[in-house]
Amino acid sequence: MALISSTTIITSISLFHLTLAYFFLFRPKTVDDQALVFVLGESMNIPAVRGFDAPSPALALLAVVLGFSGISDLVSLSMPEEFSALYYWGTQAPLRFFLSMVLVAYSYCFGSKSPIFSSSSSSSSSSTSARRPGGAPFMKHSASSGAEHLHNRLLFSFMFIEMMAWFWTWITLREERSAIVERMRKQHEREAHSH
């Protein structure tokens, strides 16, 4: 049996989302000034994010999304344990782990200042446009691209924490699954003997 139950881990993640929602709504600079964000960003050579000095409409939207996520995850914990642990969280935890891992890799690897592609992008920066297979020109890197803004230390730190938390949840759920199945089997045997 796991040292900390999956319910406790999921509750902690949900409360983390609700806390972040509060700070993104009222004091976003507090999130950006965290030591963990700074250390992870500096160690991975990821640029700092701008725009967290004051609340903004985008941060308010982010706060609402995180708030909904935190509340819906807390409410889902009230489902019967057999359904929630075996089916709902059994599929949600690996999916959320995988999506977090993809965003961690994307925020680290694919950006104009990426440590992996910085040497190859600097050699191709002399030509600002290229040709599509159909012959129409297009820009290689657009400064106004929304995907370019995903390469920052705040997103990397958040997704790294999410990735670790959901992996831990997934492993814990796998450990708890056998105990839940055994409990369900004994309950069915008792019900069969009583009839």
Question: Major sheet: order of its strands?
Answer: 1-2
Helix fraction, binned, reads 55-70%
Spans of at least 5 consecutive residues whose pLDDT stays below 50 are 120-132, 135-142
Secondary-structure content class? mainly alpha
Sketch the topology as an H/E string, one letter per element: HHHHHHEEH
Please indicate the count of domains.
1
Q: What is the 3D form? A: elongated
Radius of gyration: 22 Å
Distance between the ends = 32 Å
- Number of helix segments? 7
For the sheet with most strands, the description reads: 2 strands, antiparallel
| Chain-averaged pLDDT | 82
Total strands: 2
- In percent terms, what proportion of residues is strand? under 5%
Region (Disordered): 116-140
Pfam families: Ilm1
Transmembrane segments: 7-26, 86-108
Keywords: Membrane, Transmembrane, Transmembrane helix
What does this structure look like?
It is a single chain. The protein has one domain (6-113, 148-194). It starts with 5 loop residues before the first helix and ends with a helix. The protein has 195 residues and is mainly α. It contains seven helices and two strands, in the order ααααααββα. Helix 1 (6-26) packs antiparallel against helix 4, helix 1 packs antiparallel against helix 7 and helix 5 (81-109) runs antiparallel to helix 7 (153-194).
